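User: I'm curious whether this sequence folds into something compact or stays loose and floppy. Could you predict its structure so I can see for myself?
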Amino acid sequence: MARQDEIIKEREKKLNDLRKQKVNPYAHRFDKKDFCDVLQKKHVKLKKGSETKTKAVVAGRIMIVRDMGKIIFATLQDTSGKIQIVIQDKKTPSKEAEFFKKFIDAGDIVGINGTIFRTKRGELSILAKKITLLTKSIKPLPEKWHGLQDKEERYRKRYLDLIMDPKVKENFIIRSKIIRAMREFLIEKGFIEVETPILQSIYGGTNARPFESKLNALDMKIYMRISNELYLKRLLVGGYEKIFEFSQDFRNEGIDKLHNPEFLQMETMWTYANYKDNIEFCKEMFKYIAKKVLGTTKLEYQGKKIDLAKWQELTMLQAIKKYAKVNMNVKKIEEAKKIARKIGVDIIGCEGVGEIINRVFEEKVESHLVQPTIIYDYPKEVSGLAKAKSEDERFAERFEPFIFGWELGNSYSEQNDPKELEEYWKKAEQKFKKGETEEQRLDKDFINALKHGMPPASGIGIGVDRIIMLFTNSPSIRDVILFPFMKPENKE
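Assistant: Here's the prediction. I'll summarize afterward.
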């Protein structure tokens, strides 16, 4: 720490000296013309020891400085990659060389005008002719060989993580490509992008605990959305037929490798379709994104090879029979409890057969669903916003896609009967009053909207962050969110 304090003092002195010499250490702009990766590709055939008269104008952060006396080697990094900068006696103007030696440190952002050549050792380089300080770095970068080894520190100081490890930036470039590919797919299918409120007077659309706030102007409690679903359905009442939204949602729940309080979800609503239509739509979308972003439907995640063109489809009961080796197609709760206890499933809090079936699935089946799998026909008891299956009302027209044991989305044939939905929400309100804080709330405005008539429809919500984890082989959701929520370093 003492060494870092010394470095900061030295740099602050340089900062003051620059200002005394009327040099602005924080420039207003620079006319950058070239990018490091483009130069590397353009001159890939340039032979060792070859010089050119080709001019280059680059700008970026100085990562490493090696002063060899009559020659200085520096590594410049921009958003595209790196290139070597050379300051050499008799070839670089003496005024520029002196300026670099006296004032430039690793971490500084500079502009370089020079000519392209390749060193005898084969390194493509720019011989500096003019050096412009664009931003003086006061604090030093992490040590070259150590970088940011502490993961907590990496997430907390993402700006340093991005500087020190270019692979981190690649993950977020892939993130951007995935979102763009998903958007392209939806637009090609005739969906229209919409925007719905983040701040809501009544939260809903799923079971989750919300973040609360207060709108001072109206002296009322408000919530950050846990889902955008109910607002998308209001738009169906208004006449939209195929819509989607990239929805930043907020849930006041636990934090782990798959959960962050703030996360990105993509949700659609599609009129005159049901959950079976969305099963095919979902598989097609995953395949499209993979081909667009990776050029193939095959990827590897944490040592497991996965093909997004191959999906197995099982009802929840079939999945339980296949992986838990028990038959849960029972109607009496005592029989369901007996089976669950026999295979060691905790059923505390389960009030019906459907809830027990769902608990058995979560505890004994989900971890087996490594390869792409569609699980459909969920118990109606745990699918309050979905339509019941007409042939067996114990189950709902609902499915979820799974990969690597994770649920990646949720879809169902939307319940559009206002009376049924109101009854469901009234029961949920009773549970909420008993202390079950994740229960859904009664949204009277939405019920009124449904009374005007909403067409039959099916929506699908996709957890975008988890897809990005798969595509980038990232073990934690915090690796694919630029600024994940972190516990403060100290209470102050």
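Summary: The two ends are 21 Å apart (CA to CA). The first helix runs from residue 2 to 20.
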